[in-house]
């Protein structure tokens, strides 16, 4: 394992190495340029399956320690997402510390691109929270190790939504005996880009749709367009439904909501849906629900980026997203046969793929 600090000052806190060791990271790169106001961290978690890929997030973290914890956690998550999706990509992530609304500049993003380039292709970046296509275009002026650029793979939302839809149908196949969603009551929490595309698939199949969102204008427009019933932000947990699809905030499956949810399936696009995997993964089983692991069924976005990295055409990328159906089925069956939460079954499958590739490379 290696820790690089391009600014020339090695981190002295032994806690960094301890965190890297406990989470299995290969490398962490600390980046700083006072002249342009850049403070960033790039975490390469695992490159056994291929170069690490994961977006760059710009956030006004309360401390450098909080930023480090976030990038370590997110990069590890990308390893599992890419591995379970069968992609020839490892897991990585980057965070830029600052307010994305006022601290960004072309100079800052281009300097960040130079740090990305210094890794020689070990890390491929893309958009995440606080980062726009224009920002990635600036990064691309300094490095070729960028995905999700304007005019290339395009908006990943349709692919992400299709993968979620496939995961939802696979869950229905196990829970209801048929993967048809016709007449099923589906509550979609959050109707942004991914959520709205998901509504299109649900409407076409004849599902009964309920929606909630913090943006009233969007909510009203989407309700009219897709024939969906609007429910309150909190009331969505109490309605009579078959499928709960969180497509906005994480951690919405928690002690409070699990006491209220009447659904049989949880399948949505949001990240980190289980507030506490150890606790709520078990509670989902006890309630007889199926939870489609979020990092699997929302992997369409990273598949879209993989298409750009490896020159895969759009039809093939959609086929990859369609295969989320089969992977979800396999995970649910493994979960039931072994009596373990579905998130754990997914983790095991991802780890087995990584271990197999690692063995082959020896």
Q: What does the model show?
A:
- The longest helix is centred in the N-terminal third of the chain and has 21 residues, at 64-84.
- The model is unreliable at 1-13 (pLDDT under 50).
- This protein folds into 2 domains: 2-79 and 89-140, Rossmann fold (3-Layer(aba) Sandwich), CATH 3.40.50; 157-353, NAD(P)-binding Rossmann-like Domain (Rossmann fold).
- The chain has helices at residues 14-23, 64-84, 106-118, 133-140, 157-176, 193-205, 216-226, 255-260, 277-286, 294-297, 300-309, 314-322, 324-338, 342-361, and strands at residues 2-5, 27-33, 38-46, 52-53, 56-59, 90-97, 123-124, 185-189, 208-212, 229-230, 243-246, 265-266, 290-291.
- It has 362 residues and is of the alpha/beta class.
- The protein contains 14 helices and 13 strands.
- Helix 5 packs across helix 11.
- The protein is globular and about 55 Å long.
């Amino acid at each position: 394992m290696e820790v690089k600090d391009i600014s020339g000052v090695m981190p002295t806190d032994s806690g960094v190495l301890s965190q890297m060791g406990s989470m299995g990271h290969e490398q962490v790169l600390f980046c700083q340029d006072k002249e342009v106001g850049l403070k960033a961290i790039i975490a390469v978690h695992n490159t056994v399956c291929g170069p690490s890929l994961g977006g760059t997030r710009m956030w006004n973290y309360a401390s450098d320690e909080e930023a480090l914890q976030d990038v370590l956690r997110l990069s590890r998550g990308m390893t599992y997402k890419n591995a379970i999706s069968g992609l020839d990509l490892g897991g990585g992530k980057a965070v830029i510390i600052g307010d994305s609304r006022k601290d960004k500049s072309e100079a800052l993003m281009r300097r960040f691109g130079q740090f990305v380039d210094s890794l020689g292709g070990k890390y491929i970046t893309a958009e995440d929270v606080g980062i726009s296509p224009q920002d990635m275009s600036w990064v691309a002026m300094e490095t070729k190790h960028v995905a999700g650029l304007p005019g290339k793979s395009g908006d990943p939302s349709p692919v992400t939504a299709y993968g979620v839809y496939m995961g939802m149908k696979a869950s229905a196949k196990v829970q209801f005996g048929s993967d048809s969603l016709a007449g099923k009551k589906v509550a979609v929490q959050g109707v942004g880009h991914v959520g709205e595309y998901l509504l299109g698939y649900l409407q076409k199949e004849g599902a009964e749709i309920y929606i909630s969102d913090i943006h009233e204008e969007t909510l009203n427009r989407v309700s009219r367009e897709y024939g969906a019933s609007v429910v309150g932000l909190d009331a969505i947990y109490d309605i009579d439904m078959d499928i709960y699809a969180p497509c906005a905030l994480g951690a919405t499956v928690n002690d409070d909501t699990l006491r209220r949810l009447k659904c049989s399936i949880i399948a949505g696009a949001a990240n980190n849906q289980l507030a506490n995997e150890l606790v709520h993964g078990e509670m989902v089983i006890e309630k007889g629900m199926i939870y489609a692991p979020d990092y699997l069924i929302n992997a369409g976005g990273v598949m879209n980026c993989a298409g750009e990295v490896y020159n895969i055409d759009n039809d093939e990328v959609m086929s990859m997203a369609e295969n989320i159906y089969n992977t979800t089925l396999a995970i649910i069956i493994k979960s039931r046969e072994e009596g373990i939460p579905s998130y754990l079954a997914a983790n095991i499958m991802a780890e087995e793929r990584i271990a197999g590739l690692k063995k082959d490379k020896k």
